Amino acid sequence: MSSDAPVRQEFKLDVDCELRFEIETKDEKATVELISGYAELFGTELVKGKRYEFTTGAKVAIFTYHGCTLGLTGKTDVSYVAKETPMIQYLNCHSAFESMRAEAEKPNAQVSGPIVMVVGPTDVGKTTLCRILLNYAVRQGRCPLYVDLDPGQGNVSIPGTIGALLVERPATVEEGFSQKAPLVYHFGHKAPSENDVLYQKIISKLANVTLDALKTNKRAKVSGVVINTCGWVKGGGYRHLLHAAKEFKVGAILVLDQERLYNELLRDVHKSVSVTFLSKSGGVVERSKQIRSESRDLRIREYFYGHKSPLYPHSFDVKFTEMKIFKIGAPALPASCMPLGMKAEDNMTKLVAVQPGHNILHHILAISFAESAEEDVIRTNVAGFVCVGNVDLERQVVTVLSPQPRPLPNTIMLLSELQFVDNH
Fold first, then answer.
1. Residue 2: what pLDDT?
2. Per-residue confidence at 57, pLDDT binned at 50, 70, 90?
3. pTM of the predicted model as reported, rounded to 2 decimal places
4. Rounded Cα gap, residues 158 and 152, in angstroms
5. Is the pLDDT of residue 309 over 80?
6. Are the C-beta atoms of residues 226 and 144 closer than 8 Å to each other?
7. Distance, first Cα to last Cα, the chain
8. Would you say the C-alpha torsion 345, 351, 353, 357 has a positive or negative sign?
9. Residue 164 and residue 145: Cα distance in Å, rounded?
């Protein structure tokens, strides 16, 4: 037998333990199989005998409430069994939210299901906790809304956006939640601080539409909302958290790993909002700038090319005359140069026409549902995204990578600062 054959290890886990492993080395992969017992990954149950594959960048924690045996095959940078986990705390939160849903389900109930916001600094496991809570809700037959306010990673769509998604089935182990029909708003930057005014406006709009959806969808109203937030929790970031809590009419805030933030929120939010402090998992790992950047590229690549099940995007030319490109936000002017009655923040939400040229090469363009620039373009959701592969000034055409064949659904496009170089 070749010495290069992947090594298989078996791990026997006691009740309430978890197997943690990471794959950092490039082009490595590992598979996990549940041999006996019951186990779950971030709230998704593993199927006995099925092999799950993980590749570079994977940070995995497989938890068991009942005890299990797992087989791990392949090369990992680290793998160990942890006895201390915060999963029981997370399960208690789910139970509390489930009893709120039971109340909301009663005939003539005046209340809706829980509207929960998960907050905390960068890299404490906010997205993972949201995933666990959503999976547990779906496994109880619920149909919650997932709202993602973090434009840095783009869990509902791609980076540079915020959005919402109706969750009807558990996330798959490898690919996460089904991305069918999300509601997405263009922000165009990786960090909210790049345009505070715009960020605040699209949060308000998303909150408005989300709360309206709860009124019209009985199952979603009972199931409630889980909101993921950014890791920016000081200064302007903290003001955005308070703004989001107010706009979404949040009833519960879960604070991960930062007591200062917990105490500030206890002081500043309405007394009717319950604020709970939770420990972060010991398996949560800090990500470097490079890893964050690679994970953004991967999200965009998956949008066009798919993950495990491949997608086949289209590449075609669009004439300059068939597209109107805008960016949101003009350079700030000194107050003395402002037109009468105009405030500096108006500039931040101004539509600025962009002439197609090499300046848009490799940039992502969001295709707006707005029919014309006279509409409220910044508060209009987007249909999808294309990436600029080439600009031919002579022929006056732009070559785009698109998930669907021509023609594009609309002509109004919004320029994102995010770029993607297509190496396919």
1. 43
2. confident
3. 0.94
4. 9
5. no
6. yes
7. 35
8. positive
9. 7
Q: In sequence order, what DSSP letters do the residues of 267-301 get, joined into one string?
A: HHS-TTSEEEEEPPPTT-----HHHHHHHHHHHHH
Q: Residues 240, 230: contact at Cβ < 8 Å?
A: yes
Token pair in block for residue 15: 């009740």
Share of the chain above pLDDT 90, in %: 81
Residue 176: DSSP 8-state: B
Cα–Cα distance, 232 to 237 (Å, whole number): 5
| Cα–Cα distance measured from residue 133 to residue 286, given in angstroms and rounded to the nearest whole number | 22
Rounded Cα distance, 357 and 178, in Å: 35
Residue 181 structure tokens: 């029909």
CA–CA gap between residue 212 and residue 87 (Å, rounded): 33
User: How high is the pLDDT of residue 160?
Assistant: 97
Compute CA distances 236 → 186, 187, 194, 197, 231, whole Å.
Answer: 20, 17, 11, 11, 12
CA distance linking residue 141 with residue 151, whole number of Å:
29
Element (H, E) at 34: strand 29-37
Helix (H) or strand (E) holding 71: strand 68-74
CA distance 121 to 96: 24
What is the β-pairing status of strands 363-368 and 397-402? Answer: unpaired
Cα separation, 207 vs 200, whole angstroms: 11
For residue 121, cis peptide bond before it (omega within 30 degrees of 0): no
Residue 337, helix vs strand vs coil? helix
Nearest to 60 by CA among 45, 47, 78, 48: 78
pLDDT tens profile 64-94: 999 999 999 999 999 999 999 999 999 999 9
Look up residue 127 and give its two tokens: 């997205």
pLDDT tens digit string along 394-413? 999 999 999 999 999 999 99
Predicted pLDDT at 237: 96
Residues 6+ apart with CB under 8 A from 204: 243, 247
Q: How far apart are CA 193 and CA 200, in angstroms?
A: 10
Interatomic CA distance for residues 201 and 349, integer angstroms: 9
